[in-house]
Amino acid sequence: MRPITRRVAARDGLLLNALDWAGDERRTPLLCLPGICRTAWDYELLAERHAGKRRVVALDYMGHGDSARAAELSRYRPERAAGDILDACTALHLPRVVVVGTSFGGLMAMVLSILRPTLMRAAVLNDIGPRIDPRGLELVGGFAGHDPGFAGIDDAVAYLRGIMPRVPLPDDAAWRRFAALTYKQGEDGLLHPRWDTRIQQAMEAGGGAPDLGNAFRGLRPIPAMLIWAEASEFLSAETVREMVRDKPDLELVTLPGAGHAPTLEEPELVRPVDDFLDRIP
Q1: Which of 52, 95, 111, 167 holds its CA 20 to 30 A away from the CA of 173?
Q2: By its UniProt entry, which Pfam families does this protein fall under (predicted)?
């Protein structure tokens, strides 16, 4: 099933792109929020598994994928992204959702649980918690603002394998798909990031990642699952223990030996994630 592409306006008029898979309108839709250097198409395979059973919407943040680029750097501040998500939910008629959030998308889920407590019926946090390990900030800091301009997909694969060696991708075909979802051919014939690399400047201007411990507690009333890549550069074992202590009913699924971030297509994850989502009306 192919999605419908939706173009919706944030309150300041900036156009946001969303992929919308149809499904049973009686069930709570999935709202899929990607990582900071990722796009809505990362969720294509998950959406194909759940489309028909329920509606699935995946969103491109401002400056990512097919959403518009911002003129002002300050437009890329995380709090503006949270507002955009709420605006998109209104425009797309999503009064209540199950959020699947990878990395930055999981941070947005925590923030949304405070900004609009009635929005979420359940949440899946993919390799992210209320405190980001400094190693993760260092990793994304060297990646988000870099435009290598690769001559071809093989160069892109080699680069990604070098800086993200523990991303749990099983074979060359999976790495090529991952690279194709990361870079896109520009008018110059070279491969460039599918995001505005100025987001790195916006993150640096923001002064680092905040502690979202209070926001994570906003998930206490709802069912939630945490995917933890055991060798994650973003999510430490200590933070995982704190999350389980703060929310004892948190469903924890661990991917041994993996780094940030799982694609949710790993065989060890597909069944538990799908089973969790299928239990949500």
Answers
A1: 52
A2: Abhydrolase_6 (PF12697)
Give CA–CA dist 87/247, Å, rounded: 29
List of residues 6+ apart from 162 with CB closer than 8 A: none
CA 97 to chain CA centroid, Å, is 15
Domains and CATH numbers, the chain: 4-133+210-279 (3.40.50.1820)
157-209 pLDDT tens trace: 999 999 999 999 999 999 999 999 999 999 999 999 999 999 999 888 766 67
How far, rounded to the nearest angstrom, does the alpha carbon of residue 93 sit from its chain's CA centroid? 21
Structure tokens at 33: 């929020």
Which residue type does 83 have? G
Distances (CA, A) of 27 to 5, 96, 98, 137: 21, 10, 10, 37
The count of residues in the chain is 281
pLDDT digits (tens, 9 = 90+) for 244-270: 999 999 999 999 999 999 999 999 999
Alpha carbons 99 and 277: distance in angstroms, whole number: 10
Residue 131 CA from chain centroid, whole number? 16
pLDDT tens, 26-64?
999 999 999 999 999 999 999 999 999 999 999 999 999
Beta strands in 103-242 (DSSP E): 120-126, 183-185, 191-193, 224-229
